[in-house]
Amino acid sequence: MWLYPFRRQQYALMPQPIHGSGLYGKEFYKHYYSLRHFLVAEVTLAIGGLIVTWMTFAPGLFYLA
């Protein structure tokens, strides 16, 4: 919610009812990560975050060899 204190409206790049299928908890996440395009997006963002963190806090590790 980008404008949370001012608006309670939510925005999404690919809007869809999150719990429209009636799944909650562990079953929801099993279904969510079984969808390939969400899995690719999550893994790409996680790897990108790890690379940024690594380059920020340990940039000299690339030059050890």
How do you describe this structure in short?
The protein is mostly helical. It contains two helices and no strands.
Total helical elements? 2
By secondary-structure content and strand pairing, the structural class works out as mainly alpha
Low-confidence stretches: none
Oligomer: single chain
Shape: flat
Summarize the main sheet.
Answer: none
Beta fraction of the residues? under 5%
H/E order of the elements? HH
Radius of gyration: 18 Å
Describe the model.
By secondary structure, the chain is mainly alpha-helical. It has a domain at 26-57. It has two helices and no strands. It has helices spanning 26-34, 36-57. The chain is flat.
Topology overview:
Blueprint: H1 26-34, H2 36-57
Q: What descriptive keywords fit this protein?
A:
mainly alpha, 2 helices
